[in-house]
Structures are given as structure tokens and as C-alpha cells.
Amino acid sequence: MEARFNLFDNELAGKFGKRFANTATVLQQSSLPKTTQELVALRASQINGCGFCVDMHTKDAEARGETSIRLNLVAVWREATVFTEAERAALAFAEEGTRLADHHQGVSDETWAQVRKHYDDDQVAALICAVALINAANRMNVIVRNPAGSYVPGMFEH
Q1: Are the CB atoms for 55 and 156 separated by under 8 Å?
Q2: Any residues with CB less than 8 A from the CB of 75 and at least 6 apart, and which?
Q3: Which Pfam families does UniProt cross-reference here (predicted)?
Q4: Which of 10, 12, 30, 98 pairs as cysteine with 126 (C-beta 3.0–4.6 A)?
Q5: What is the pTM of this model?
Q6: DSSP state, residue 82
Q7: What is the CA radius of gyration of the chain?
Q8: SS3 3
Q9: pLDDT tens by residue, the chain, 158 residues
Q10: What's the CATH number for 32-144?
């Protein structure tokens, strides 16, 4: 399987990609836990059907020490006992922030209250930006049908 269009070989897309990666670096340097960032990225990618990003964020999370049990349960996190209250709030936020068309007013007041309970202002800002960023990445990869399976952890780091 090949992508319809190689975003990595196109000059304009390459310039955009570098700036996109710099944006991701800002989030990685935030105080939002790396585990939470990966769980959020994985859940949004599952919802959006982005195989490339599911592959990437599963492998990146594993490389950082995440367990296969938790990664396998992200899609059914509501029924799983392996996530903290803070992670559950972030996962609910990721789902609602990804499924905007399904929610009249976007993120519910209940989910927002849980996020505010567990995260400080900088972490909330990072969470908002992380959901927006992964949704953009998902859309680019799904549009070009970027295949999953070949990602190696760290391959996009400078």
C-alpha cells in the first residue's frame, strides 16, 4: 500500500511539516504528562481512523514505557480500570474535542470541569493544542492515505 501523495517529498508540504513539528515540540516541552499526550493522540487517531498516527503514537508510547494493556484499552477507556481520573478526563476531552460535529457545543461542561480539576492552566492550554494538532495530523494522513506500520519511534525528531 502506498500513499496517494507523498507529503514528505513535496517542498511546500515539507516546509509546513517542519513548522508543524516545531509546534509539536512546544507541546512535548509542556508540563502536560507525556503519557497523557500519547493517550490523547492515540484516542483521537482511533476515532479519525488514522492508521499512520495510531501506529506512531502506539509505538512512541511503548518506547516511553507505556504498557500494552493500557494501549489496548484506550479505545474502551470508559470500561477500563487502568486509567487515572486525570487521564480519563483527558480522554473524554480528546473524544469530545475530536467529535465536534457530534456535540452541539463541543466539549461538555462536565468534561471541562473534570479537566480543570486535574490540570493547571498550562496543562489545559497544552491539552487544547494537543487535540487540535493531532486532529490536523490525522486529517492530513487520512486524506493522502498514508499507510500504517513503518513508523519507527523517534524518526521525526531533529
Answers
A1: no
A2: 43, 46
A3: CMD
A4: 30
A5: 0.93
A6: S
A7: 15
A8: coil
A9: 899 999 889 999 989 988 988 898 999 999 999 999 999 999 999 999 999 999 999 999 999 999 999 999 999 999 999 999 999 999 999 999 999 888 778 899 999 999 999 999 999 999 999 999 999 999 999 999 999 999 999 887 75
A10: 1.20.1290.10
